[in-house]
Every structure is written in structure tokens, then in C-alpha cells.
Amino acid sequence: MAPTIHFQLILFLIISLSFLPLKLCSTLDRQLDYKNWISWNVENHRKEVKTISQLAAGGSDKSLDVRLRKAEMNKVRISVSQDRTGDFKTIREALDSTPLYNNRRVILMIKPGVYREKIMIPRTLPFVTFLGDSSDPPTITGNDTASVTGRDGLPLKTFQSATVAVEANYFVAVNIKFENTAPHEIGSIGGQAVALRISGTKAAFYNCSFYGSQDTLYDHKGLHYFNNCFIQGSVDFIFGSGRSLYENCYLNSIAKKVASLTAQKRTNSSLSSGFSFKDSKVTGSGLIYLGRAWGDYSRVVFSYTFMDTIVLPQGWSDWGDPKRDSRVYYGEYKCSGAGSNITGRVTWARVLTDEEAMPFLGTYYIDGDTWLLSS
Ligand SMILES: *[C@@H]1O[C@H](CO)[C@@H](O)[C@H](O)[C@H]1NC(C)=O
Ligand SMILES: *[C@@H]1O[C@H](CO)[C@@H](O)[C@H](O)[C@H]1NC(C)=O
Ligand SMILES: *[C@@H]1O[C@H](CO)[C@@H](O)[C@H](O)[C@H]1NC(C)=O
Ligand SMILES: *[C@@H]1O[C@H](CO)[C@@H](O)[C@H](O)[C@H]1NC(C)=O
């Protein structure tokens, strides 16, 4: 604990010294700031991501979900391989072999290959992990769109277009490529084609990639964590009502004209949903808004993120509804690159202060201390 705090103290001193000439604050204010800062850091430190070995070591972890802890300590592994060397040939079969109301972590070790499967993990199958090989991640692919006719004879709609849909809680994916190959035609209707929909809460994605065009990643609802992920799309390619932290992610636009990277849907000021992007990169083709307001109270923050020239100077869109200008929360903090120039931004975009940015900058934003494990 001590070395981290020392390091943070030094960092704080460097930062505060470099800001001193800009700030006219009384000694009292500064002492208060300092005290707040220390308690925030100590608090933060306690909320550090826990390792599985720490869990196994004993009951000191009161904060972690009890069910999750039990599930992690009773893991089962099953393998999926298209060459018949695994326990199952398809992901579907492997999932079907898992008992409903499963209470153990079930790790599907998915061997390299292209899996053309449409997968839905129901709420009754929590604690599922998709684990691929980092040197050759498996691809799960499909090409359904919102306008494709479903089994009931009706259009699937965006929700059902997903190649992989996760309704279950505590889902984890590592080294997996999620894909929807349906192209987006400008002006077409019903072209929404989701690669992954995550509707369960407490889900984590490490080293994953998401390939699609319109509506690639449906970050539907719940608490989600994305680390070292690649996300590609054209229109609204990260959208939904989730409360999610994206760290160290590569956001690649393939828009041909003007589009929006995110469409965050927060419909009510009392809801805690929102997308936070940290230490990420925004690049690709076309001209993009960082976000457009799907819900009246849409909330998106970018921090420490590199933004290429493709970002429109205005930055953000109210989707043609001016009443949203005073309701949305669109913030930027310490971003870099030509696209991060705030000179042309809409007047209702926010350049966040240190204090305003803080709630979005760590895994505590998604209550990580109760469920996030380092793999
Ligand atoms: C994730 O990818 C990095 C390379 O970007 C690799 O070094 C690391 O081992 C991968 N993590 C896992 C859990 O496979
Ligand atoms: C989707 O893929 C299937 C199988 O490859 C193909 O038969 C079908 O034509 C594709 N649908 C569209 C709309 O591209
Ligand atoms: C927001 O949501 C809360 C809780 O669901 C509800 O009580 C409240 O009426 C909602 N407010 C608006 C403006 O819809
Ligand atoms: C930001 O954009 C304005 C207007 O285009 C320009 O004058 C200014 O030099 C830019 N600032 C930086 C740091 O590039």
C-alpha cells in the first residue's frame, strides 16, 4: 500500500505545482482540496481490482459479491474446437451442456476458427466465460440485420440482430472477435446489425474485438468493463443504456460521410447510466460526432483519449432536439490530437475539471470492487 500512496503523493505534488500559478486559491481551500484528494485516493486504493488468488486466500473480501466468489472458486473448463479435438464442436453445444441456474464459473476455451453461430446466453446461465487464444482469437460471426425476417415472420429489429446476445450476468470474454458482416448502406432502413448485445450486468471484456457497421456494440444495460478492445463501425457503433468503462480501447470509424461514434441512451436524470472512455483512441474514416443524444439525459465522457482529425469540431449532437442541450452530459478531459480541439465545440459540451472528471476515471465508476477480477 505504502509505495502506491507515495507515488500518488509525488504525482499529486508535481501536478499541483504545475497548476499553482493558474490557481488563485486561499491556503484554506488548498488544505481542503488536499484532504479531499488524500481521502479520495485512499478510498480508491481500497477499491483496487482483486486477483483470484487473493479471493482463494480467504474471507477478507467483504465487498465482492458472495455468489461470484463461490462461482470463481468452483470453476469448470470445457473446450470447443471445430476439429473435434475438444469437448464440443460448437459454442451452442457447449452452452447447452451447462445446467440452468448454474452457480459455477464455466470457462469455454474456444479454439481458433470462424464460428458461424447465432448465440443467446439466457439470464439463467450466469458466470460464463468465453476464452480465446490471444495469438489467434476465434471469430463468432453472423450477418443478421434489423430488417431480416425472424422465425416468427416478423423483422428481427435491432435487438434481435445481434450475432451474440448476452442476457446473463457475470459474463466474461477474453481474446474473442465478435462480428456482424452486414454492410451499412447510407439511406437504407433496417440496416442495424449488432455484433454483440450485452444486457446482463457485471460483464467484462478483455482483448476483444467487435466488427460491424451500423450499431456494432449494443451496450444495452448493466455495469460493463472493456479493456484493450477494438471496436469498429460506421453509425452509432457503441450505443445503449449501459454504465460502462472503456479503457485502452481503439475506436475505429468506417463511416463514409457523417456519423456518430456513440448513441448513449440515458432517459432520466436519476439514472446512473453513461459511457466513460479513458486512455483510448478515436480514428478511422468519415466525419464523426463523439456522441449524439439518444436519450434526453445522454451521458458520455472521454478522458486521456487521442482524437484524430475525423472528429467534427462541434463534437456532439443533440439529434435535432434542442431541449437536450441543457440535459445531456457530454464531457472531455485531457484528450489529445487534432480532433480534441475544443474551439469549435457546441456550447453545451463540457471541458471537465479534475473534480468533475474524477468519478469517471476508475473502475469504481462501474462499482468494480464488487465484481471485477483481474484475470
Ligand atoms: C491481451 O493482449 C495482450 C497483447 O495486446 C497480451 O500481451 C495479453 O497476454 C493478452 N491477455 C490475455 C489475458 O490473453
Ligand atoms: C448472410 O450470410 C448468409 C450465409 O453466408 C448468406 O447466404 C446471406 O445471403 C447473407 N445475407 C445477407 C443479407 O447478406
Ligand atoms: C425517473 O425515474 C425514476 C425512477 O424510476 C422515477 O421515479 C421518475 O419519475 C423518473 N423521472 C422522469 C422525469 O421520468
Ligand atoms: C484549434 O482550432 C482553432 C480554430 O480552428 C485554431 O485556431 C487553433 O489553432 C486550434 N488549436 C490547436 C491547439 O490546434
UniProtKB/TrEMBL annotation:
It is found in: Secreted, Cell wall. Pathway: Glycan metabolism; pectin degradation; 2-dehydro-3-deoxy-D-gluconate from pectin: step 1/5. Keywords: Aspartyl esterase, Cell wall, Hydrolase, Secreted, Signal. GO terms for biological process: cell wall modification; pectin catabolic process. It catalyses: [(1->4)-alpha-D-galacturonosyl methyl ester](n) + n H2O = [(1->4)-alpha-D-galacturonosyl](n) + n methanol + n H(+). PROSITE patterns: PECTINESTERASE_2 (PS00503). The active site is at 236. This is Pectinesterase. It comes from Nyssa sinensis. The lineage of its organism: Eukaryota, Viridiplantae, Streptophyta, Embryophyta, Tracheophyta.
